[in-house]
Amino acid sequence: MTLSAPERTVVLAHSLERRQAHDVLGRLEGHAERLAVAEPAGTTESVPAELARIIALVLDAVAAGGTVTIGSLPEELTTTVAAEQLGISRPTLMRMIRDGEIAAHKVGAHHRLKTADVLALKRDRLAKQRAAFDELRRLEDELEQS
Q1: Residue 21 contacts residue 13 (beta carbons within 8 Å)
Q2: Measured between alpha carbons, how far is 103 from 78 in angstroms, rounded to an integer?
Q3: Fewest CB within 10 angstroms: 12, 22, 27, 76, which?
Q4: CA distance 144 to 62
Q5: Distance of alpha carbon 112 from alpha carbon 114, whole angstroms
Q6: Could you say which residues of the chain have pLDDT below 50?
Q7: HSE (side-chain half, CA atoms, 13 Å) at 71
């Protein structure tokens, strides 16, 4: 099943599609660079390695029974969109820009942020949240054992 919105497509794979993805991954055996596209004339065209890596990630998610969401973002984001991506308020983002926690530049009177910078910050924040959660679980385990 495919659900579409202006900037996002969500794909829910059924059991047949999960099996097919698993079979393709098995044939690739970790060599995504071997992906190729069949041309109408009966020839094949190799998929560039960078694109093959993305396709392999999608196949892996489908094979595992996950939901695949494909979205697009421009190279630069407004502060409103960047704040949404980070899961924070716009005033908090503006403070982070002012404090130098994330780079931004001005276009006229408005701030813009590079999408790569926003996504890197999002990954870093998620890693810190996971580490804090893991530490809480470790402390809880220690308390239960005492």
Answers
A1: yes
A2: 13
A3: 27
A4: 38
A5: 7
A6: none
A7: 11
